[in-house]
Amino acid sequence: MAILMKGNEAIAEAAIQAGCRLFCGYPITPSTEIPEYMAKKMKKAGGTYLQAESEVAAIYMVYGAGAAGARVMSGTSSPGFSLMQEGLSYLFAAEIPCVIADVMRGGPGLGGLGPTQADYFQLTKGGGHGDYHPIVLAPATVQEMIDLTKEAFDLADIYRNPVILAVDGILGQMMEPVEFPGKYEAKVLPAKTWAADGCEGRPKNNVISYYLSSEAGEADNLRWGKKMAQMQAAEQRFAELSLDDAEYAFVAFGTSSRITETAIDMLRSEGVKVGLFRPISLWPFPADGLLKRVPQIKGWMSIELSAGQMVQDVRLVVNGRAPVGFYGRQGGMTPEPEEIVAAFKTQILKGGVRG
Amino acid sequence: MKTVFAKTTGLTDRVFHYCPGCTHGIIHRLIGEILEEMEIIGQTVGVAPVGCAGFCENYFACDIIGAAHGRAVAAATGAKRARPDRIVFTYQGDGDGASIGLAETISAAARGEKLTSIFVNNAIYGMTGGQMAPTTLLGMKTATSPYGRDESMGYPLDLPKLLAQVKGAAYVASVSVDSPQAVREAKKALKKAFQVQVDGLGYSFVSILSTCPTNWGVTPVEALEWVRDKMKPYFTLGELKVPTVEGGGKE
Ligand SMILES: Cc1ncc(C[n+]2csc(CCOP(=O)(O)OP(=O)(O)O)c2C)c(N)n1
Ligand code: SF4
Ligand SMILES: [Mg+2]
Predict the structure, then answer these.
(1) Domain membership flag for residue B16
(2) Contact flag B77-A54 (C-beta cutoff 8 Å)
(3) What homologous superfamily does CATH list for A3-234?
(4) Does the Cβ of B52 fall within 6 Å of ligand 2?
(5) Overall CATH class of domain A239-349
(6) For residue A187, what is the DSSP state?
(7) ipTM
(8) Ligand nearest to the CA of B98
């Protein structure tokens, strides 16, 4: 049976259904429904909602709980996500599974409360120090938020890596009909034999993130590099719309992909053969899927709620073989489909942009 | 032959990396002995700081989580909330617990987190080579107060005194390890702190005045004298708060 649910609440409910029993967070708009839902429901589920004194503390509470083997998550919005970057770097290095939702709002600075996708660089290029990447999943519907949240917990456990749900403020706040338990089927997971949860009956475990020698440091980094390569090989996700006969393609994720779908309908009604490539994993960026379309596409265009961040990844894959344009709105504004159509015509059809 | 002293099973066989005359080692031994005596080695999760004790996972026989600088109490909070059946402690320097992690320390106390923090106050940043700490005494020369700490750099923070005001802190003690008698008293305080956690009474915190002969630029013996002559008169000592029956603490 379908029920109406807000995106943020859907994430929280899906997390509880996925076995998450500890949520540590600090309230920030437009993600507050996540902690509020957790505060309401965790107790009944036999878990704990823990309000941290800051996002800095929240991410290290997640760190400690994850290190002790728990399924744990936090949810925040851009300024809070910035405060979590050091922690994400530590989580990666200590190989601690966890799920963090970033419900993106305007920036830089305190910014506004409106939706953006302007944390893309921070999400996908490693906002903290060192060579690392969390897995970053970007849903485009409330139902997909449920399925990806559940999957995120499994991916975190499989790779012992933080997994981030990249959600823009519209998706977090939007209500849509959804089905529980959703489509995702839980995977068989490795036992957490590495966890620091009391060494009774086994040798002691340490969950740490430093190395004493540069040689050991390089060895660790090479091992993590292999793990990231594995994730890049196995976890690229994307969806395609109207691409089979397409001569042109938009690239967009989350809310901007949904607005772009309307722009595609408008262009198709004018006879322009255009489709959509929608990254679902922002990291790993679905380069392989996009590359397959490169020979066929005469012009690309990235649509984002930012000044143009993902477009750089698109250009890396297209690598000069076709023009790659960009259109976006910032600061909490969203483009109308008409604006996208107009920008596409000037930049791609009239050849205003060189890749 | 009668055994008069044995190394505790609460510590591993690794040789400490601490400098000669550094009392981090004594404090480690006391904690190891308590884990052994209370028979909780297998049920305990320790959280290491960033500081000279940042490698203590090599020494404690229990599981250890290594936190970022200042975040040990937050990590310990997560571990304890995830596994309330476990004994969780943090081992932190004065920079870790009273400067970069001050918000975490006070907030955990305010929430009455059922964990134990061991706060090793050597009035300096040992690990990074002897810079000024929040606990550096007025007049004390460090790498970043080369002419001596003056009032424009603020006053040394007496953290246990502050924490004793916080309702959720059930046990707060301030001790030293500068003499055999002081070591015995420090051990008693540490044991009480762990017991308060076992009894689920709230946050327990033990501050221990400690030496850093290397960065103070003195001999080990002079360092102990310095603790007695300079630190003990400034920092409040003793049991500053003990548990009441209802939980929380009483001054
Ligand atoms: C975020 C961050 N800032 C600064 C440092 C550098 N740092 C490492 S240890 C330390 C101070 C340690 O002093 P204290 O906590 O008193 O411990 P001690 O070494 O004296 O035992 C500092 C500033 C760091 N590792 N991380
Ligand atoms: S630098 Fe100071 S605190 Fe660190 S081990 Fe040496 S004496 Fe101890
Ligand atoms: Mg110190």
Answers:
(1) no
(2) no
(3) Thiamin diphosphate (ThDP)-binding fold, Pyr/PP domains (3.40.50.970)
(4) yes
(5) alpha beta
(6) P
(7) 0.96
(8) 1
Q: Does A69 touch chain B (CB under 8 A)?
A: yes
Total Cβ atoms within 10 A of residue A193: 8
Classify residue B8: in a domain, yes or no.
Answer: no
Chain A CB within 8 Å of residue B208 CB: no
C-alpha B23 to ligand 2 mean position (Å): 8
CATH number for the domain spanning B87: value is 3.40.50.970
Name residue A223's amino acid: R
B54 touches chain A (CB under 8 A): yes
Distance from the Cα of residue A186 to its chain's centroid: 19
Nearest CA to ligand 1 atom 5: B69
**β-strand partners of A100:** A74, A164
Q: What is the DSSP letter of A251?
A: E
Q: Which residues of B115-130 are buried (b: 16+ CB within 10 A; e: fewer)?
A: bbbbbbbbbbbbbeeb
Structure-token pair, residue A222: 């090479």
- E strands in chain A: 3-6, 22-25, 48-51, 72-76, 98-104, 135-137, 162-168, 175-178, 206-207, 238-241, 248-251, 274-279, 281-283, 299-304, 324-328
Pair B222, B213: CB distance under 8 Å = yes
For A19, other C-beta atoms within 10 Å of its C-beta total: 14
In Å, how far are A92, A160, A162, A180, A354 from A347, measured between CA atoms? 40, 43, 38, 42, 9
pTM of the model: 0.97
Considering its fold, how many domains does chain B have in total? 1
pLDDT in tens, chain A (355 residues): 799 999 999 999 999 999 999 999 999 999 999 999 999 999 999 999 999 999 999 999 999 999 999 999 999 999 999 999 999 999 999 999 999 999 999 999 999 889 999 999 999 998 999 999 999 999 999 999 999 999 999 999 999 999 999 999 999 999 999 999 999 999 999 999 999 999 999 999 999 999 889 999 999 999 999 999 999 999 999 999 999 999 999 999 999 999 999 999 999 999 999 999 999 999 999 999 999 999 999 999 999 999 999 999 999 999 999 999 999 999 999 999 999 999 999 999 997 765 5
CA-to-CA distance for A144 and A273, rounded, in angstroms?
A: 27
Cβ pair A68:B83 closer than 8 A: yes
Helix extents (H) in A213-332 = 214-234, 254-269, 287-293, 310-318
